[in-house]
Amino acid sequence: PLAFLKNLPLSQAFNLRLTQLVCVLEPIARAIKCLEGLDTTVGDVWKFYVAITAVIRDLFVNNAQGYPPELQEAIRKIINSRYKEMIGGERGVVYLAGFYLDPEQLSSPILRKSQANVLSVALSGSVDLHQTELIKIFATPCLPMQSQYETSTAAVAALKSQFEAYTRQHAPFSARVHARTPLEYWRTMSESPHADVLAFIAIKIFSLLPNSMPEERTVSSFTRMNTVDRASQKAESVVGMTKIRQHNRRVDRMSKQTSLPSPPTLNWRSVGTLFASAKSAKDAPETPPSNSTAPIPARPEETDDQPLRKEGLDALDGNMDEEDNPCPVVSDNTKSFDIEGSDNGGEGIDLSLPYFRDLLSEAPIVPQGGSATSGAAKTTAAKAFAVVEDIMDLEF
What we know:
This protein is mainly α. It contains 16 helices and no strands. Helix content is about 50%, strand content about 0%. α8 (about 180-190) runs antiparallel to α9 (about 195-205). It starts with 7 loop residues before the first helix and ends with a helix.
């Protein structure tokens, strides 16, 4: 079946198409890897989705791989459809809210005055908060909210006041709070009566884990427990043993560390290093104890799943019904990316910002006119931009 590789024109065409495919899928795969952590927030999902779009946009602008115009339009349509389905709609506001309510993102270059402010519409004083999804949160039983605010109007007034204070970094948000994650930050701020409403909403947002890693790890434990020679166990037994295993591992881990480790910087360089070190440890040969000569048991042979693979490929090659379409929302825009805001006067996100490409790059990307600085210098520079003129000019 690979005899065509002897034909030079066909071989070169195959390699070119394969390179085009890899270059498009690589930023998506890197972003998925970065979002598999337990400290991932909904704001990170928005940030990395924009980063994927920025990298693919650069591919089309430079076009070193020779993407034909019709292929570029098809890829833009897919990206715009996914954006419109997941993030661009009313329910997708939670992703942008998660990005903005992360205190570390107040210094983001996205919010600087030289760029279009993607929050200008969301923060405008013309927005009636009574008509937004935020007010529905107060329908949830919450004793502190019910005892302090008798009506939803009072709660919304407090929310607007606290949101303005957070945006302008006025008290109590001007105080330095040591927190590993945004969730810990807002739990600390919830103790202040001048931040309780906004903190209540932020805690709900950052309590969402936008991935299924805990479930996947639990199912992997099921697989380890339910081996071939123990295949007759009841489901209750497997679940019970998995709970005991997870509890013992949690207790053992907590007993070995004096403090919780800081979450890694969420970009491809740091996450890729963690995966590489974990893979090296996994691939290291196991040695039996010195006082034992017992051989290391071999791994059980994998079952032949070729029929299942063929069935899956046949399903992909088959015609998909319209009702089974995984992306029912389709965008008609094929000339540009919706996230850039080309259809509304350019009020969107500047995808040329090095900030986005740096998230998925193997090497640090320094903005033009900038230089690589130490971590302490970067932190100081970030705090200097904590109060952004574009945000300060907004009316609440």
